[in-house]
Each structure stands twice: as C-alpha cells, then as structure tokens.
Design brief:
The structure holds 2 protein chains of 2 kinds. Chain A is an alpha/beta fold. In chain A, 23% of the residues lie in helices and 42% in strands. Chain A has 8 helices and 17 strands. In chain A, helix 1 packs antiparallel against helix 2, helix 3 packs across helix 4 and helix 6 packs across helix 7. The longest helix of chain A has 17 residues. Chain B has 13 helices and 26 strands. In chain B, strands 7, 8, 10, 11, 13, 14, 16, 18, 19, 21, 23 and 25 form a 12-stranded mixed β-sheet that branches. In chain B, strands 6-5-9-12-15-17-20-22-24-26 form a 10-stranded mixed β-sheet. Chain B is globular and about 60 Å long. Classes of the chains: A alpha/beta, B alpha/beta. At the A-B interface, strand 16 and strand 17 of A face strand 25 and strand 26 of B.
Chain lengths: 391, 475
C-alpha cells in the first residue's frame, strides 16, 4: 500500500544514518509486518472504528514535522536509538520487538519497521529515579514512534508522555516497556492531539517477578484515537494498577483497549476507566482479562464507566474475561448512563447555570480516577484539559 | 438429598438412586421412513412432498438451502470443525400417524417416553403435550378447556396445513433465512416443532410442554417453533430435549420465533440435556411489542457444543425482557450461551442473569449483546454474569457487548469468575457434611435463581441432574 515497502524502509533508515543493527531490526519487523493484513472493520478489534476515514496514501514518513524531546536527569539514559545502539547494543538487540511476538499487531510492526522517531530509555540495576522522564511528542504529518524502555531489576522510574499537534496528521506509536524483577514504573500518557489528527498507539509492558506498573492515561484529542495498552504478567508476584480517562467531543472517536494477560501465579491487576462523551462523539472500550491455566491465585479486576452527555453520542463497551484457571478472582463491571437529573437540579437550584452544573458533575465523575494519579503535574494538566474542552 | 454412606476407605458414597441410563438408552430403529444421508435439493423436495406442503413452503425451503450453502461457517464461538454435513440423516419419520393417546404409539416410542416420564407429567399437571421423536411430532394433546378458549397448540406441520393463514403471516418474520447459516439450514429442512397461538386476553395458567428426542445415530433434528401471543394473553411453554450417546455426532439446529403482541407475556423455558455427541446450534428470537414481556429461561446441561443466544427485540414502549440462563459444562463440553437484547423503543427494560459452572475440562462462555438505538430514551438494562470454575482443567469466558447509542439510559453490567468459596465449604463441612456433598449443595445454591422459576417437577429433575454431574467431583 503506497509507501509501505522495503525501499521506503531503507530510505528512511539511510536518512537517519542507522547502523547495521538498527536496519536489521527494522527489516525483521518489516518481515512480520508483511505477513499480516491491514485491519478492516471486518476484524473484531476494528469493528467499531471507522478505518475508512484514514487515508494511508495521503501520508508519507518523509513528510513528518515532529519534535520529540526526552528530558531526563540522574542515572537514567534517554537518547535516540541511533546513539543508544552504540552505547547499549545488547539491550537493543535483546529487547526491541520482543513483546510483539504474541497477539501480533500490524500497526505495531509498522512503527517498529518504519519509525522516524525512535528512543531508548534505560534504567540500570538498583537505581531508583525520582525525577520523571518526560517524552514530548508534537507532530504533524506522519510520525511513527518507536520507544523502548528497559528497566533493570531493583529500580524505579516515572515516565510522562505528552502528545500534541496543531495540524491534522497521523501518529503511529509503539512503546515497549520491559520491567525487571522487583522494579516499578509509573507511566503517564497524556494525549491531546488536534481534532483532525489520527492517533494509533500500542503500549506493551512485560513484567518480571514482583515488578509493578502503574498506567495512567488521559485521552482527549484526535479525530480517531486508538489507545491500546497491554500488560503481560510474566513474573510471579507482578502487579498493575491501570487508570484512565477519556473525553470525546464533536465527532471524535475513542478506541480504547486495556488488556491484561496473566500467565503465571500470584499476580494482581486493577483497571479503572471513566469516559465522558459530548456532542456526537463515540467510543469503543475493550478490556480483556485473560488468565491462563498456570496463573493460579490471580486477582484481576476491571471497571469502566461511561457518561453520555451528547445528543448523538455512542458508547460501546466490551469488557471480557477468558479464564482458564480456577483458583482466581476475576470480575468486571461496566455502566453507561447519563447525568443524573436530580444532581443537575440540585446544583442549578443553587444558582449555577446548566453548563456550570454539567461541568461540575463531570469533574465529579472523573474524580475517583484523577485523584489517584500520583503525579501532580499530570493530574493538573488533565483537569485543565477537561475544563478547556467543556467550555 | 441422598443419604451419605461411608464406603471402604472412608470415601463417601452418595446413594442417589438416579442413573443416567434414564436418558442414555436407545431403541432399535424400525422406522417408517429415513431419508438417505446428506443433503441436496432432491431430499428437500422429498421432505416437502411427504409432508404435503403448499408450494410456497417448498419454494421457501429451496431458497433457504441455497442460502445455507452460500454462507460460510462462523469464525467465532465453539469448535464447529468436526461437523460433517454429509454424514447426517436430515429426515427420519418413526411412525406414520400422530397419536392423541399414548396407547396409539408404537411400543418402542411409548417405552421411550414412559422412561422419560412424559405421560405421567402430562396426567399430573400439564395443559398440553407435544412429543417429537426424530423428525416428527408423534404425540399431541391439548386440554379441552384450553381448546375451547381458542388456544391452538399443535405441531408445526399440522399448523401449516390447518392454520396456514396465521402461519404464513408470521413464519420467518422474526428469524429470516439469511440471519445465519444454521437458521438457513433449519429453514430448508425443518420438521416438527410447536405452533402455539393464544387468543387475545386468554391466560393459559398451566404450562404447555414439548419434548424432543433424537434416537437414531447421525441424526439431525431441525424443529421449528412459532408462538404467537395476542394482546394481553399469557402462556408458559416448556421444552425438554434428550438423546442417547453415540460415538458419531448428531446435529440439533432449531429455530424458535416468538411474537408477544402488546400487553402479552410469553415465558419460554428450556431444559436442554442432549447427549455429549450432539451439536446444539439454535436461533431463538422474540419480538416484544408495547408493554409485552418475554422471559427466556434457558438451562443448558448437555450437548457437546451449544451455541445459543435467546434474544428479545423490544419493539414497543414499555416492553420487557428477562433472560435467565444457566449452563453446566462437564468433560468434553462447551456451552457457548448468552442473550441478546435490542432496545428499539423507549422506556424498555431488560435483565439478563447468567450463571455457569464448568468442571472436568468443560468450558462455559457467556456471549451477549445489549444494544440501544438513538431515540430509545429511558432504557434500563442490567446484566449479571457469574461463573464458577470447579477445577484447574476447566475454563470460562465472559464476552458482553454493549452498544449504546442513546444518552438518556442506564446500563449496567457486571461479571465475576471464581471458585467455590473456601468459607462456604468450611461452614458446611463443619456441620458434618462431606466435601463432595458440600460442593454439590453450593453448586445447587448457585443455580437456584434458575431452579426456583421452574415448575416443581422440573426443578426436582434439574436438581437430580446437577447432583449427577457433580458426582465424583471432589476438589
């Protein structure tokens, strides 16, 4: 399809002066990319998302105007891949693309092969990092990002990812996170692309023994925004807390997946997602909790709540459970509804306008998730964005 | 509950008298007619001719056959790969005439239904009974007082002949041929099934029952049921199904269409206990009009693979849907069941409750849909799914779809999967009950929302079935 061929890949690789090792990685990803079909609405995962809106041929990786800034202090390493491959060749070789082998995703391979912005964030053993690492992505045109984060055992780090754009463009983003034994990562993803932007992102975390990840995401922008967050519990004792909010307005479409794959015993997972749909926006929320046979003593929970405020809003939600072990606790809950008229009346009878009352209720609706977001700056940014969108 | 007797090594032995041969027996085949194996247009014309059907039905069947061949197998759900459509008898007629008295039936059929307890049940408390053996309904009766009120309860073939205008009006309007591959198959080769018509304002207080039995090996049973409840009427229809166990597979593909006109109530109870070689692929759908209520009470105990999602389309204001689904999957079984409720009108409500138990490597899947279209304001829906997995070999899935296109609604869904609570076990065992007994009690309590809405005989029977399934499962 258009530019998605080996020639373009080699051109990109050359123009970024990749060394042999990086080119090899690109080609390996490209091979896998070739084996998969482009998703269509006939595929279960894309049933509710209108792919027709995305005109792939109108984009080209050469036409990308992006800025990706990585800010980090202390003993954490954060540099573009072309530098990182010289300093940590074994890390790149051992980890890049490793999480993509199961439940293969064509767009993830697209990013892994054609990336024009690639970074390695590396935290050595026994190194707790206090200052958050920030990743700022602002783009127009087609940006394919490939971010590899490797945290060695006994360490911890916070990563804040901030995505914006002003023009309509497309972002195909891949983040692979490998968390070593007894390490902890707090990941914050704040997405506020422009209203005509397409954002298709996949983030995968692979957890070692007793490792922990704290996912926090806020999805606000984009014409179509696909936020796929998958957590693989590969080490016993690993755990995850996942929180997210999304706010759709106008004709936006939010496609959110939070999947948890429990493969070993004694893991815990708790997912909470809340979304508000204004105007004619739509959402599809999927949350799969899959517990394999060996994963006894798993506790995995999910709950999702959507508040529909727009006259023509559409909320789809499919929380699912695939359980093959019996000594587990797994449950999920999902609700969809509108603003409680009684609450509105209460507030309006205190002199607030309807608009203000609505805003207050929505803030209250999001609050149980937002108040648990550990990083002040991110929490505040999310609150500000919500207020801006509601105005 | 059976008494506990301690066996040799102190292992408790339940002395429940029930033995599975109640269902597992089989009779010699001495049939009046058996079509050749496999399916083609000739066989379909043959079936239609034997039934002396009007041309529009023959046309309908042939159209359906073309649709059946052109549709692909579903790419989701259970494992359908071992179905060999060429290795099935699509029409078997055991006896030429239909009986109105049990004595009229050929001895082997009488024996079958005697062993299953049907005549007795009828004597005791049913309003009417239809019994289908292989492809045809062999026995039918309806209580006189109901017949006087204008209630029609007959088999589908008879209805096509004697009440053709009503049948033609509603047949296939709820489940069209193109709906899915198996509805198309049923539309092509359907035989037997029930036709129920309740005139306006009539309340049928005692249940109408139908019983379906497959006897021959490699048999396909394709019953077609149509129930029409005129405004403000009430009916409760119960169906049970069994078959003996063979090593080859049988296929049961039924289509059930329910029309609940304004203000009426239809309650449809199924206790499915097909043998473990039967593929049970069923399309059941109801239209509920203004202020009407449809209740699906769906119990799935048997079969190798069941794929069944009783649905209700809520077409008029104030219509209600209630679905109570229980599934029990033992060794080699997959119960892929659930429900679909589509809210097409405002102020409609739905409640779906699903309870499932899997053991010995069985798998239960809940697959459901709640859909609300724009304009359907004031909708309330709640779905609750609970699953018990009794051992490490078994599995359970829950895949609920919610497609909500109207903001002025209240939709909730919750599901949980887990094992029998250690606390509950401890409590019962500390009262002197063995572990096996305690587990059985807990599972029966888990299924209680279902058993309590069954007429007593059925509840007792179902409890016995569950106890039987639980036998030998410790830990």
């Amino acid at each position: 399809m258009g530019w998605m061929d080996e020639k373009t890949l080699r051109d990109i690789s050359q123009s970024y002066k990749d060394n042999e090792a990086l080119l090899e990685k690109r080609l390996a990803a490209f091979q896998e990319f070739q084996k998969l079909r482009m998703p269509t609405m006939n595929d279960e995962e894309w049933r509710y998302t209108d792919m027709g809106k995305i005109k792939w041929d109108s984009f080209h990786p050469r036409n990308a105007d992006y800025r990706v800034n990585i800010g980090c202090r202390g003993n954490v390493y954060g540099k573009p891949l072309r530098e990182a491959v010289e300093k940590y060749p074994e890390i790149i070789k051992g980890y890049m693309g490793k999480s993509l082998g199961e439940r293969k995703d064509k767009l993830a391979y697209m990013a892994s092969a054609f990336w024009n912005a690639g970074y390695l964030i590396y935290v050595p053993k026994n190194t707790p990092i206090d200052e958050p690492v920030s990743i700022e992505i602002s783009s127009s045109g087609l940006t394919l990002t490939n971010i590899l984060i490797v945290v060695e055992p006994g360490s911890s780090v916070k990563v804040v990812e901030d995505c914006r754009s002003s023009n309509g463009g497309m972002n195909v983003g891949l983040v692979e996170l490998f968390i070593g034994d007894s390490s902890k990562v707090d990941y914050y993803s704040f997405q506020d692309f422009g209203p005509s932007h397409f954002d298709l992102s996949l983030k995968r975390a692979v957890l070692g023994s007793n490792a922990h990840i704290d996912w926090n995401f806020g999805a606000f922008g984009g014409s179509i925004s696909k936020a796929k967050i998958e957590t693989f519990f590969e080490g016993p004792g690993s755990s995850a807390e996942q929180r997210g909010v999304f706010l759709g307005s106008g004709e936006q479409h939010h496609d959110i997946l939070t999947n948890a794959f429990h493969k070993v015993p004694h893991t815990t997972n708790n997912i909470t997602v809340r979304g508000v749909l204004l105007g004619s926006s739509s959402s599809i929320y999927r949350g799969l909790i899959r517990i394999e046979k060996p994963a006894q003593q798993t506790n995995s929970y999910l709950n999702e709540h959507s508040l529909m405020m727009g006259e023509h809003a559409l909320a789809n939600s499919i929380p699912s459970l695939e359980i093959e072990a019996n000594e587990v606790k797994a449950s999920h809950g999902s609700t969809t509804g509108k603003v409680d008229e009684e609450q509105m009346f209460y507030l309006m009878s205190r002199g607030l306008s309807r608009k203000d009352a609505e805003r207050l209720i929505i803030e209250g609706f999001f609050n149980p998730v937002i108040e648990k977001i550990p990083l002040d700056a991110v929490r505040q940014r999310i609150i500000n964005t919500i207020e801006r969108k509601m105005a | 509950m059976g008494e506990e007797k301690m066996g040799d090594k102190g292992k408790p032995k339940a002395s429940i008298e029930m033995d599975y041969s109640k269902y597992g027996f089989r009779e010699e085949e001495s049939y009046d007619f058996k079509s050749r194996m496999g399916l083609d247009e000739d066989i379909i014309r043959e079936i239609s001719a034997m039934k002396k059907e009007p041309p529009w039905m023959t046309e309908f069947r042939l159209r359906a056959y073309k649709t059946f061949i052109s549709k692909p197998m579903p790419a989701w759900g259970g494992d359908l790969s071992h179905i060999d459509f060429n290795n099935i008898y699509y029409y078997v007629r055991a006896t030429e005439k239909q009986g109105k008295d049990w004595k009229d039936l050929p001895p082997e059929i009488q024996r079958t239904f005697d062993r299953l307890g049907i005549p007795e049940a009828e004597r005791k408390f049913l309003g009417g009974v239809g019994a289908q053996y292989e492809s045809e309904v062999v026995y039918h009766s309806l209580r006189e007082d109901l017949a006087k009120k204008g209630v029609i309860f007959t088999d589908m073939d008879t209805a096509l002949r004697e009440h053709s205008d009503i049948v033609k009006k509603y047949f296939s309007t709820i489940v069209p041929i193109e709906d899915n591959k198996f509805a198309a198959l049923n539309s092509a080769v359907w035989s037997g099934g029930s036709f129920v018509y309740i005139p306006a304002g009539v309340r049928v207080d005692v249940p109408l029952q139908a019983y379906f039995r497959i006897n021959a090996a490699n048999m396909g049973q394709f019953e077609r049921t149509l129930i029409i409840a005129e405004p403000n009427s009430y009916v409760h229809y119960i169906e049970g199904c069994t078959a003996p166990t063979y090593s080859s597979n049988s296929l049961h593909t039924a289509v059930v269409e329910l029309i609940a006109l304004p203000g009426s109530t239809i309650r449809y109870t199924t206790i499915q206990n097909w043998a473990s070689n039967v593929y049970n692929l069923v399309t059941k759908r109801a239209y509920a009009y203004e202020n009407a209520t449809v209740e699906w009470i769906d119990g799935n105990i048997g079969s190798r693979l069941t794929m069944k999602y009783p649905s209700v389309y809520l077409m008029g204001k104030g219509a209600k849907a209630e679905v109570l689904s229980v599934a029990f999957a033992g060794k080699g079984q997959h119960q892929d069941a659930g429900s679909k409720v589509l809210h097409f009108a405002p102020y409609t409500t739905s409640q779906i409750t699903s309870r499932s138990v899997s053991k010995d490597g069985g798998r239960t899947t809940y697959r459901g849909l709640v859909k609300v279209v724009p304009g359907a304001v004031g909708v309330k829906s709640s779905v609750t799914c609970d699953a018990l997995i009794l051992d490490e070999k078994s599995a359970s899935d829950t895949i609920p779809y919610m497609e909500i296109n109207e903001k002025d609604v209240s939709i909730g869904h919750e599901a949980s999967v887990g094992r029998i609570s250690e606390e509950q076990l401890f409590y019962l065992m500390s009262r002197g009950i063995s572990e096996a007994e305690a587990r059985t009690l807990i599972v029966m309590g888990f299924m209680e929302p279902f058993t309590k809405v069954l007429p007593m005989e059925y509840a007792v029977e179902l409890n016995r079935l569950i106890q039987l399934e639980m036998e030998g499962s410790v830990g």
